[in-house]
Amino acid sequence: MSLNNTPSGERVHIGIFGKRNAGKSSVINALTGQNLAIVSDVLGTTTDPVQKAMELLPLGPVMMIDTPGLDDEGELGELRIRKAYQMLNKSDIALLVVDGCVGFTDEDLRILRRILDKKIPYVIVLNKGDLVPDENKDKVVGDLKAYMAASPEGYDTDALRIMWVSATDKTNIHELKDLIASLAPTDDPNHRIVADLLQPDDLVILVVPIDKAAPKGRLILPQQQTIRDILEADAVAMVVKENGYKEVFNSLAKKPRLVITDSQVFKRVAMETPADIPFTSFSVLFARYKGELDSLVEGAHALTELRDGDTILISEGCTHHRTCEDIGTVKIPRWIREYTGKDINIEFTSGTEFPLDLEKYSLIVHCGGCMLNEREMKYRIKCAADAGVPMTNYGTAIAHMNGILDKSLEVFRVTGDGSF
Length: 420
Hints:
Elements: E1 12-18, H1 24-32, E2 50-56, E3 60-66, H2 74-86, E4 93-99, H3 106-117, E5 122-127, H4 134-150, E6 162-164, H5 173-183, E7 203-207, H6 221-232, E8 236-240, H7 245-250, E9 258-261, H8 266-272, E10 279-281, H9 282-290, H10 293-300, E11 311-315, H11 327-340, E12 345-349, E13 363-366, H12 374-386, E14 391-393, H13 394-401, H14 405-409
């Protein structure tokens, strides 16, 4: 897969945080060698988080996130600051850019504590180093360490990652890139979509409906990624539409190791698949790959406990074009109401929007999260858990409502206690 075509959810997300005019945009441009961000002396040039997919050597494919200033003012400024803090949830690495001429302010220290509490790999980037005498540099760093050492959390000041740079003359920019690369999450060879379940030459059948929601001329991202993962396992991927699945299956000379289906036709595929053949859905695969499958399976059981007047949240990680039979806004709400027989209120969010207040919801039903990175998906799951709200995803919910959830999970079970 080309680095330019690497999906956003598979890129290392690098969030850039700091006050207005600390030089966040200048640091981004210096790191990338491109004018990706607008640089201006006017306060508040960056008014919303801006994400840019690119390649950052020596790291590789990344998503750079430029955020609004943490000292923005007024009612609109407060909303922008909230947006900036939300970007922490998807940042694999956080860069806190501080104006070295000014030193650390309350805004800088507040987000630094949040970064440390969330255990996000980070670098404190003291910018404008070309304008600061060496003795002043020592004082700025010393003041920070004294503050952090005196905080109730008792932070280890020797572990603070601090680097002086100059976005103007490029001092230490190369060293900063190397440090960022060293903080990137390492690839776990066992963390796969499906390849860890396969042996070379295994046959996997993928049931892929082609409907109005499918992007013209291509498959949706989870299907593309799953096919790629199957091929990397030296297994064989056979793709078929749902209306030809039964005939194709009956014509096979070799039993498939696994059948993977789009969740929309989960019930039909389950009925047409022999009992001795494991099957699951793309959405269930991504529940395991991007989140915590055990908790999402547990959340699916909350569907049986819904009552009249309950409110559920259906949340998607992307903002794709909606159709008259959209799975998230049309099909799943209909299936939930039919399954429960209850008068359920349903709210929707999409893209980066995820409510801060979740307590009013009785259940959250999330998409597979193919456009979200693992950190953000797990953050959303943890937010739900902290609020005491069960959370599931499309595939597990649909499988539960069709009475086939246990069967769809058999292929993942690796221990006798039923865990995954």
